[in-house]
Design goal:
By secondary structure, the protein is an alpha/beta fold. It has helices at residues 6-9, 22-25, 30-36, 53-64, 78-85, 109-113, 116-121, 134-137, 140-144, 156-174, 184-193, 198-211, 224-231, 243-257, 261-273, 277-292, 298-313, 319-331, 337-351, 410-428; strands spanning 43-46, 67-72, 97-102, 124-130, 147-150, 179-182, 219-222. The strands form two sheets. It has a five-stranded parallel β-sheet with strand order 2-3-4-1-5, sandwiched between helices. The chain has a two-stranded parallel sheet with strand order 6-7. Helix 17 (298-313) packs antiparallel against helix 18 (319-331). The chain is extended and about 85 Å long.
């Protein structure tokens, strides 16, 4: 039996084979361009475990021809770094050394400072990785000589790609000569249970292959039940591309819209248990503007902050700011006036000849604009009492159209009363 970890046995050898991290490794992205140009600077890879940091470092070493040395800061010392430096300018490192220092946050300030001399003279190209925010845990002098790249949790869809590759290899290694039948739900469950950690998903898959036995017909069945046991998590009835996915999201939003925090938290918990962080964050951001809207405009800002926190933390800690956001939205006053207004305006754009922009609103900041009649009769509101003056803004064809209707809530009622008062005074002038 091969004792090398599965993640190492199927580690991608090219950038195109790396799953996830398209924001860094997609065509035209900075890190990909740097690697393809073979001019690799000192770098810090920041992100959770199992998302490809080590894989990318291996590809960089192979691409540049540098000798790769891997150290883990939890066990390494300055002496280990000096030993690596001793291989420079020898047949052991003809193109130089790429030092991959994992968990650099465990190096103290003095140990991190010891790296500076070799970073300065270019003898060592450093790629430091950390699961903690490098701006808090990495010495400033090291950071200032490095480019920081943030690696994100891998989406379940991308984790599935890696799992299917691994399944082919495990079938050949462990059960050559047998027919392997893999339940798609098992792969999907392992991918969602990993919370963006490819290594975790691969370890669970390997456990499934070790536990399975061929039946009397010589077939191996990798079932959802085995996947649940390996992932140590019960599968929900949840298919990201199917009805169940949209049913949960629908119930989630309707519970928030209906101001039921208990139901909203329940459906949030279902989504969290399924590991579907992207769908949760997107739906929460939508609800803040669609269902709460102008009744409590600050909700959008607060929720955006909670979503950003959740994405930085990752699951399971992300559940805390997500719950905060959902309870805030469920208990906030509601208004759909914003979505009604923009949908009505878009409908007119698609179905009507709305006409030309009024001449007095057109750009007049260029020579000859006045010859075209542009901007001549424009009234500058700030030159009038209360910064308001009556004038036409909509095109002639729809000059009396009303898109925005004030919602029945404290905030919008206050705005309505204010503008009724201001406009009445303007009409009396």
């Amino acid at each position: 039996m091969n004792t090398t970890p599965l993640a190492d046995r199927i580690r991608p050898q090219t950038l195109d084979d790396v799953v996830g991290q398209k924001h860094l490794l997609g065509e035209g992205k900075l890190l990909r361009n740097i690697i393809e140009n073979n001019e690799v600077p000192n770098m810090v890879f920041y992100g959770p475990s199992g998302v490809g940091k080590t894989t990318v470092a291996n590809i960089i070493a192979a691409k540049t021809g540098k000798t790769l040395h891997r150290l883990n800061a939890t066990t390494a010392s300055v002496a280990d770094i000096k030993h690596i430096v001793g291989t420079l300018d020898s047949f052991l490192a003809p193109e130089g050394v790429l030092l991959y220092l994992d968990e650099i946050q465990h190096f103290n300030k003095k140990q991190q400072q010891s790296l500076l001399e070799f970073m300065e003279n270019g003898k060592i190209t450093l790629i430091a990785s950390t699961t903690e925010n490098p701006y808090f845990y990495v010495y400033n002098a090291v950071l200032s000589r490095s480019i920081v790249f943030e690696f994100k949790p891998v989406s379940p869809e991308d984790v599935e790609i890696s799992l299917r590759r691994a399944a082919d290899k495990l079938s050949a290694e462990l059960w050559s000569g047998f027919e392997t039948v893999i339940d798609n739900d098992a792969i999907t469950h392992l991918a969602h249970s990993a919370n963006g950690d490819v290594r975790k998903a691969l370890n669970a898959l390997e456990a499934v292959f070790m536990a399975v036995h061929p039946d009397k017909d010589g077939k191996l069945y990798l079932t959802l039940d085995l996947a649940e046991q390996a992932a140590q998590k019960k599968a929900l009835r949840y298919d990201k591309d199917g009805d169940s996915h949209y049913d949960i999201l629908s119930a989630f939003q309707k519970s928030v819209r209906g101001s039921d925090p208990d139901a909203a938290v329940h459906y949030l918990a279902r989504l969290i248990a399924a590991g579907d962080l992207p769908s949760i964050c997107r739906r929460i951001l939508v609800m803040a503007s669609e269902d709460i809207g102008l009744a409590y405009p600050m909700a959008a800002t607060i929720v955006n902050s909670c979503v950003n926190s959740a994405l930085q933390l990752g699951l399971p800690e992300a559940r805390i700011p997500l719950a905060e956001a959902v309870i805030l939205l469920a208990t906030a006053p509601k208004s759909n006036s914003a979505i009604n207004a923009i949908d009505a305006a878009l409908s007119d754009i698609k179905s009507k000849d709305t006409g030309d922009i009024p001449a007095h609103l057109k750009d007049s900041h260029y020579g000859g604009s006045k010859n075209l009649g542009h901007g001549i009769d424009y009234k500058y509101p700030h030159s009038y009492p209360n910064h308001y003056v009556t004038q036409q803004y909509l095109p002639d064809n729809i000059k009396d159209r009303k898109y925005y209707e004030y919602g029945d809530n404290k905030t919008e009622n206050a705005a309505k009363a204010y503008w009724e008062k201001i406009k009445k005074k303007a009409d009396e002038r």
